[in-house]
Design brief:
This protein is of the alpha+beta class. It has three domains: 32 residues, no CATH class; 190 residues, Lysozyme; 52 residues. Helix content is 42%, strand content 14%. The protein is built from ten helices and seven strands. Strand 2 and strand 3 form a beta hairpin. Helix 1 packs across helix 8, helix 2 packs across helix 5 and helix 6 crosses helix 7. The N terminus is likely disordered.
Length: 298
């Protein structure tokens, strides 16, 4: 004997999705708790670095839809990157421009690290998530005392050099972005095998297939947060903290003492100079470092 079934449905009221359940015997709607997901608008068109996204292709449309849905509903995480961007983007944007890298690549940094000095299980570090060998290849100093993967300006310059090289080899900024995840050699192998040279026509690994769409989704949301129901005030944003710069040309045996001499404490020194990886700084002959000392907020 079959029991009466319950058919779930979703009603959109005033922009909010409300789940209801309908008893198949009585056809009466029984209101349940309101859904927390926000019903967002899907863009009519999209581009990455000036290169059009073919939203007319069904799987392309659905892949972007997935990443928009995920990130539009990751409320705390997405709000945090919007707040952090107010501090990080003014550093990243002029460096991208200096190297001729499209501004959209700042969103690549967002999906790589959430704009914090993250550490991956594989050993990638910093906002731009460089592995040690790749970091050194692009002139980042990495040793027991200094790790410039944690230096936002220098790591952004290294990322730009990588991306310019990848674009020259792969032919498009979209493929250059994909290679930041899948590697230039890995993407090239798939281009040669599949005889297709457009990212949206290639079958890649799950992670690389989602990669550019994650960038596109964060670009869309962060360019117009209110459209995606992120109601942040200017006062909610993390401020740019003014600093004075100190040139260091000789070793510092005790960074805690150095911090006190500069009018701050050890914690603040390390927060503003995360590339310093020890309690001291070893400076070789002829080498110099620029240390940021905040002038407000502490």
């Amino acid at each position: 004997m079959k029991k009466a079934g319950v058919v779930a449905s979703v009603i959109v009221v005033g922009g909010a999705a409300i789940h209801t359940a309908t008893d198949s015997k009585t056809e009466k709607s029984v209101p349940q708790e309101a859904a927390t997901e926000f019903v967002y608008p899907f863009p009519a068109q999209a581009d990455f670095a000036g290169e059009a996204v073919p939203l007319n292709i069904i799987d392309v449309h659905e892949r972007l839809d997935r990443e928009l849905m995920v990130n539009a509903n990751l409320h705390a995480s997405t709000q945090l990157v919007i707040k952090r961007a107010h501090r990080a983007f003014p550093v990243i944007e002029p460096i991208l421009k200096k190297y001729g890298v499209p501004d959209d690549f700042k969103y690549l940094a967002v999906i790589e690290s959430g704009l914090v000095n993250a550490v991956s299980p594989a050993g990638a570090r910093g906002v731009w998530q460089f592995m040690p060998a790749t970091g050194r290849e692009y002139d980042l100093e990495i040793n027991d005392y200094v790790d410039e993967r944690y230096h936002l300006e220098k790591s952004t310059e290294a990322a730009c050099r990588y991306l310019v090289s990848a674009k020259a080899r792969l032919g498009s900024w979209t493929l250059a972005a994909a290679s930041y995840n899948g590697g230039v050699a890995g993407v090239t192998r798939q281009i040669d095998f599949q005889q297709a040279d457009n990212y949206y026509d290639l079958l890649l690994t799950e992670e690389t297939s989602r990669y550019v769409f994650r960038i596109l989704a964060l670009k869309e949301i962060m360019s117009d947060p209110l459209k995606y129901n992120f109601r942040l005030l200017p006062s909610d944003m993390y401020p740019v903290i003014p600093v004075r710069q100190v040139e260091v040309t000789s070793s510092i045996p005790d960074l805690a003492v150095f911090a006190k001499e500069q009018g701050i404490n050890y914690k603040v020194l390390k927060l503003h100079n995360p590339w310093m990886r020890d309690r001291k700084l070893d400076v070789k002959s002829g080498k110099k470092y620029i240390v940021d000392i905040p002038t407000e907020g502490y």
